[in-house]
Amino acid sequence: MPGLTDRLVSSWSRRGALAWSLLPVAGLMWLVVWLRRQAFRFGALPSQSVGLPVVVVGNRIVGGAGKTPTSIAIIKHLQSAGWHPGVLSRGYRRQKTAAGELTLLDQHTAGQLDASLVGDEPLLIWRRTQAPMMIGRDRVRAGKALKESHPGVDILVCDDGLQHLRLHRDIEVIVFDERGAGNGWLLPAGPLREPLHSPESEGLAGPPLVLYNANRPSTALPGFCAARRLGRMVPLADWWHPKPKSMDGKSPDEPPKSGAWAVAGIAHPPKFFDQLAQQGFEIHPVPCPDHADYAAELPWPPSVHDVIVTEKDAIKLHPERVAAERPLTRVWVATLDFEPDTGFWGALDFALSRLTPRPPN
To answer: Distance between CA 155 and CA 349 in Å, rounded?
Structure first.
């Protein structure tokens, strides 16, 4: 029987009885959000610059909508254009002992840090981009600290900071998935953290860029779409310790099309299971809570021979531990291919061209 949280989340897709009953509370939420934005707009609450251009990637609804793959794609795009990006992240769900601290994740510290200390998404971003990161709740303080520790950084990408208005930003990227804005109401009557048509932040280099992690736009906001599909299946040990690719880029082996278990500790596990089904896999689905840490126990029995996981899960599954606790299991990591429309890159590059300092030649 679904719990209260499940019922609440389910109600956000429509304007049913539960959503209507919570609408007065959502009205108070709207007032708080509006007053806060006005306070920043007129200087009662000041936005602060960290002395570098800032690209903020976030969403207006609760739950994952594709911020992390979007951040990774933008960081790689900046790197290919000659920028030297650094990354800011809150480090959601990391250990409480580290929650109030600033933690630097770079080539010197990565060997001593894991997902419990920095968060699974920051660690995944680091592994995919090698861009130095500062993890902490206070994005302004984190940005200044990263600038001091890495003077070569010339632009910052803030992963999930759209509502962190104290950090001055130059470019905003707002991400939606196929859920769009749900029933269009604010929390707790709907999934929105702020109104869909919120005014843009002061001082932007251009209008906010909207990116749909879906086949087609899912709100009335004009924007661009991104293609998101599963890529190669990589053995867990090879994902952690990459080997040179073969000439054709294919793995010498792959999981069986039937009988494998699929583990997903992401915001919407059915999306992952559907992607596997589209590739012809008949799997036993194992949905786990978003950001599940797997510290206490691995989520499949010792007798299972093949398990397919997302990259977000793989970052918390060390090959040595899996080999010791599940010696009969082969774990496969389903890599993600994520590519926004070319029009998105054109719009982003135009915004970047208006920044000070200018982008590299």
So the answer is: 13
Q: Can you tell me the distance from the alpha carbon of 2 to that of 169, in angstroms, rounded to the nearest whole number?
A: 40
How far is residue 66 from each of residues 122, 140, 312, 355, measured CA to CA in Å?
Answer: 14, 24, 12, 25
pLDDT confidence of residue 104: 96
d(CA 100, CA 42): 29
Report how far residue 307's alpha carbon sits from residue 293's, in angstroms, rounded to the nearest whole number: 17
pLDDT, residue 101, reads: 85
261-285 burial, b at 16+ Cβ within 10 Å, e below that, comes to bbbbbbbbbebbbebbeeeebebee
Tokens of 156: 């910052």
Mean pLDDT of 315-328: 96
**Beta pairing, strands 103-105 & 133-135:** antiparallel
The SS3 assignment for 124 reads helix
Query: Which tokens go with 206?
Result: 């251009």
Q: How far apart are CA 20 and CA 28, in angstroms?
A: 14
pLDDT above 70: residue 132: yes
- 221-239 pLDDT per residue, tens: 999 999 988 999 999 999 9
| Structural contact between residues 66 and 137, judged by C-beta atoms closer than 8 angstroms | no
Beta-carbon contacts of 108 under 8 Å, excluding residues fewer than 6 positions away, are none
